[in-house]
Amino acid sequence: MLPDPSTPPAPADDRVRLSEVISALSYALDLTEGQPEGHAVRTCLIGMRIGRELGLDAESRSSLFYALLLKDAGCSSNSAATCELFGADDQVVKRTWKTVDWSSRWQSIVHVVRNVRPGASLRTKAQQVAGFTRQEAPGTELVRTRCERGAEIARMLEMSDDTAAAIRALDEHWDGRGIPAGLRGDEIPLLARIACLAQTVEIFHSTRGVETAFAVAKDRSGRWFDPELVRALRGLRADGAFWAGLAGDCRAQAALLEPADRVLVADGERLDRIAHAFARVIDAKSPYTYRHSEGVAMYAEAVGQVLGFDAETLRDLRRAALLHDVGKLGVSNRILDKPGKLTEEEFVSVRRHPEYSYRILARVAPLRALAETAASHHERMDGRGYHRGIPAGTLPLAARVLAVADVCDALSAERPYRGAMPRERVLQIMRGDAGPALCPESFAALEEALDARPELGMEPRQEEFVKS
Q: Who wins on pLDDT, 54 or 391?
């Protein structure tokens, strides 16, 4: 689904509400979690209504607002591990996991048995299940990684400490049987308790209706959820218009819930931080793409400088490079990390990721102009690229530069089906593709940039996260 053409264009000075940017990008997080698009925004609507019922002050409501939108910011960090652990599509596992009362050992076992190695023999499934028992609390480690990464992303975006704390404690439970720290009762930050309840209610409301959502909240009151919050939720039961309104694109409704005296603005500097933060989310999806987006941005900017791009064009190119693979958050790690040859069906899925990138970025007003460039990084000069098969005559120069930078960084890095290539081999391959696939002008500029700066891309990239 392409963005609504009635959406107003971005203001000329890029000064839009931060909430508009984050709510639009939260659709990428929904993809990673295997949730229907708009899940985070709808969770925000529910959580903010609970906050209103509790009478939270403006500062707390502002922190809660961003915690709800960014609650899944760390979700990509455990995708590869989830896929390996289950031998299954990480998005399917995550989606079904959210409907399970995983504090119940029996329900957890049933979920594991149903989801490991789909289509495999009983013996193979049994071997995969046995792998769980050989690991110490594998689920705890997956959630810990997710929560810590999410809190780190919030800090990168300069969110409040309360927002980061809420994201870190999202999966803690009132009875102390949650994860990762086993916090109990009031030890759990209030905003985390609200977010935990709101996301569960949203999932069951979206999939099974309002009656089931309230039944689950009641059943888990005192176990998963703070009973006082469940009582506050009950006050919303009679508001039929509210529940009926949780359909379609709810971003405009969510924007109205941000405290008016605490509106955060996404100016140019903040947009750069957002691009860098979401690049970390994107690259955490697979160990083979670690810091890939930042590498592409580095090469693209170097090429753009050789080609004489002005400061504004370079800024846009850098942002497009950082976000070009955001659509990969919608692709299963069973495909992204597959060591062997992809099937035709799997290749079709991979080829859709630029389309997903376009759809996501086109929702973000100040980034909408970059969507075409970002989504064209697999197009070819001869028109045989994907996802649209655009020939060179209609490909803007920025898109051609981005394609060259993407190939350079990809060939320089390890992949599941081959090792990293030395620079001379990378350039040899690219030289052969210059013309039919890659823009000769952009490739020549890359060679010039590397000649002038031989250290470009060769320095080890510093980890700021502990890899799973």
A: 54
